[in-house]
Amino acid sequence: MRDVYTLIKKKKLLEEGSTVVVGVSGGPDSLALLHMLYRLQEKMNIKIVAAHIDHMFRGDESKNEMDFVIRFCQEHNIVSEAKQVDVSSYAIKNKKSTQVAARECRYQFYQEILDKHESKFLALGHHGDDQVETILMRLVRGSTGDSLAGMKVKRPFHNGVIIRPLLTLTKEQILLYCEENKLNPRFDPSNEKTDYTRNRFRKYVLPFLKKENPQVHEKFHQFSETFIEDETYLQVLTQQQMNKVVKRQELSAVEIDIKRFLNLPLPLQRRGIQLILNYLYVNIPSSLSSIHIESLQALLSQDHPSGSLDYPGGLKVIKSYNTCLFTFEHSELETYRFELEIPSSIALPNGFVISCKVTRDAPKHIKGNNTFIMSYEAVTKPLIIRSREQGDKMKLKGMNGRKKVKDIFIDEKIPLHSRHSWPIVEDGNGNILWVPGLKKSIYEDEGIHKGEFVILQLMV
């Protein structure tokens, strides 16, 4: 009780006069937490509500656990909320594992109870041994970032926070508390099965660590607290530096400058990649791990100018020269073909705009590749603006023979993801007149002094 109260006050887990929803399964951990907060009600001026969900995995056995929680609350004059949910059916319908489905149903229920009782606090009974197991599991799985710190004593949830007041206690202390206070908790037999990863860590790894150091839970708690402090500081630094690295940021795409990125210290590189992934993914896939970040760092560091990676959930990472694109929109596979009216302007799928006008004013010598000019009489209609096609070649000004458009892109270091949508302008005879912004063909007229002529202009 003293340790729990000290942690609550030190970490400011609760506010005076608040309502606290306590997730209660009926097992020793959650029941001990409920009883402790019940005893602290007057001292801390709080109101508690017990929330129990029956996942309906074990038929009458789990129904009896729900009845037990309800009776316990009635005997102690505690407000209780209980609900039965067919999690197995939910899992099948949504194509999820039973564990993931149970968690989703459970936390959705908690949200409903928080809203119903206008509470900002959800208290859960995770303890120090749980924390040791969680950190070890995440290390083995290859988790990254602040998730390596394990469960937080306090973290945002719904319209409030989740608090874990028992994180400094061991399972043994909790069982002793239940025994001394005659709580008679219920025990879920599935916790003894070694089918689940956590149960294997609990049965085989944790006893070994406790034999080496009976206070191992305290060491892991200290590690978690220190790690979170360090990680918070590094995250702030990363955000500041990534503002200089990101060239483009959209809803489903982020483009970065590779040279600037590689100039960052390695710890900031790893966290920078994680920031991008957190931004792009609505929900981080469970299959995403540190291996993906390491493979990306290797891709960006290699000498080859291009390459790509396929990430879970359809995210594609494309390296091309000095840029790297993270995108869910694989627009590079899309083709287009438009007729350009004379005069008119047209907006292209890649964001470029090409305008066309007719004028009698004698133009001066046209410089730069963003503008193309032809005698109106020399134009073979219709003018076509299209995406690149395999085998495209053009006759360049000042050059004998023809050059592949592919080689032009390479020479100009156009990123791979931009080449497929880059516009090509050709005339009615199929001659490529202009690759806007890059190269002009021999068909451009120079030094026109009379008559009408057509000016094409690229606007990015």
Give your account of this protein's structure:
- The structure is a single chain.
- The protein has about 450 residues and is α+β, with helices and mostly antiparallel strands.
- The protein folds into three domains: about 1-215, Rossmann fold; about 235-330, 2-Layer Sandwich (Uridine Diphospho-n-acetylenolpyruvylglucosamine Reductase, domain 3); about 335-460, no CATH class.
- It is about 40% helix and about 20% strand.
- It has 15 helices and 22 strands.
- The protein has helices at about 1-10, 30-40, 40-45, 60-75, 85-95, 100-115, 130-140, 170-180, 195-210, 215-245, 260, 265-280, 290-300, 405-410, 415-420, and strands at about 20-25, 45-55, 80-85, 120-125, 155, 160-165, 245-250, 255, 305-310, 315-320, 325, 335-340, 345, 355-360, 370-375, 385, 395, 405, 425, 430-435, 440, 455-460.
- The chain has a six-stranded mixed beta sheet with strand order 3-2-1-4-6-5, with helices on both faces.
- Helix 5 (about 85-95) packs across helix 6, helix 7 (about 130-140) crosses helix 9 (about 195-210) and helix 10 crosses helix 12 (about 265-280).
- The radius of gyration is 32 Å and the shape is elongated.
- The N and C termini lie far apart (about 65 Å).
- The model has no long low-confidence stretch (mean pLDDT about 90).
